[in-house]
Amino acid sequence: MHSIDLDTFERLVDDGIEALPRKFRARIENLSFAVESRATPDDLRSMGIGRGRTLLGVYRGVPLPQRGSGYQLTMPDRIVIFQEAHEQIARDVGHLAELVTHTVKHEVAHYFGISDARLRELDAY
Fold first, then answer.
1. Residue 29, domain member (yes or no)
2. pTM for this one?
3. CA gyration radius for the chain?
């Protein structure tokens, strides 16, 4: 377990966003990133996460391929990274940074419409 303050954790999330390939960052629109201390019971339920399992992040929104012509003037979709879950797994700050970057990439993949099943096929886990 490795704990850090919120500002430092938010910088790790920013670094994870910057680590995305430029061609993907350029296509991101109407999306915000946030840090929350832990997943809510609703998050866990909606993602099918059972007792004793961890949720590192969540994408809350409509994936790009599913957005139709009626998708305009809407509030931004949101990617939330859960700080405490990352800290519980991390061995040190370097490992924490790796975990956060991986989670950011994973949730951005959902924004682009890539499912967990497809991520497994791509060996992205």
1. yes
2. 0.90
3. 15
